[in-house]
Protein: Lipoprotein
Organism: Komagataeibacter europaeus
Amino acid sequence: MKLKIVERMSARLGLLACGLVMVCGCTAEIGRKPFESDVKCLREQMGTTMQLSFPIAANTCQRMSDHNFVFSKNHKHAEPLPLKLRGAPDLQKMADEYGYSYTK
């Protein structure tokens, strides 16, 4: 009886550990990390070994009006929010060049 309880508990802890690794294991190649600024996200995306262009990095980093929540009520009408590029004149210049809206 005790062996079955221990097996169940270890299986649950294993699933919990796998879930935490999957949720917390975001890398720059996967996309935006939680609570990351737009400038930091863009710099990480463009500085990876893949050397992403500004439009691809901006599409990865740009937040949406539905907060990127898949099951939101307005997901069909979600619009991209302006990038917050305060203190990054080089990124502002690229945003102007490619037509992305941003706030200073």
